[in-house]
Amino acid sequence: MSNVILEKALELGKLIAQSEQYKNMRAKEASMMSDVDALALIERFQQLQQSHHMLRMQGQELSDEQLNEVYAMEDKMMGNSLIREFAEIQEQFQKFLNQVNDQISEGIEGPKEPQGCNCGTGSFS
After folding, report:
1. What is the pLDDT of residue 74?
2. pLDDT at 1
3. Nearest Cα to 78, choosing from 109, 38, 112?
4. 48 close to 65: Cβ distance less than 8 angstroms
5. What is the pLDDT of residue 38?
6. DSSP designation for 110
7. What pTM was computed for the model?
8. CA atoms within 13 A on the CB side of 83
9. Is the model's pLDDT at 125 over the cut of 50?
10. Contact in structure between 41 and 77 (CB atoms under 8 Å)
11. Cys-Cys link to 82, which of 32, 34, 67, 124 (CB 3.0-4.6 A)?
């Protein structure tokens, strides 16, 4: 039985790879990665993240100036249309994967009760 499950998981992965959501995300990623300006921004941001990560690993807290530097770099990156478009489509793809995961969970656990609804549990005066 577990082999069948693994085969179905592989099949699901292949279907996801053929989906428009995945193809669009990969196309935006390729556009972004082929742009020199976008790559330079990404590289600078990653270097900044790495240096700040090293400081935190050494037990140092980041100063307000260092935090502002990160926020400014994020803003600069999102100012690049290719990076922004990739980030947006990547977020959409993640939502799609979350929906797939929710469906798998529903298949395992059954349908979930609506949140915040106490339907039929109260008494009426």
Report:
1. 93
2. 82
3. 38
4. no
5. 97
6. -
7. 0.76
8. 18
9. no
10. yes
11. 32
DSSP 73-104: HHHHHHTSHHHHHHHHHHHHHHHHHHHHHHHH
- State pLDDT tens for residues 54-75: 999 999 998 999 989 999 999 9
Query: Could you identify the residue written with the tokens 């700040």?
Result: 52
Cα–Cα dist 47/70, whole Å = 11
34: helix, strand or coil? coil
Q: What is the CA radius of gyration of the chain?
A: 22
Contacts 24+ apart (CB under 8 A), 34-38: 35/80, 35/82, 37/80, 38/80, 38/82, 38/83
Instruction: Give burial (CB, 10 Å; 0-12/13-18/19+) of 41.
Output: buried
Query: pLDDT-based confidence at 122, cuts 50/70/90?
Result: low
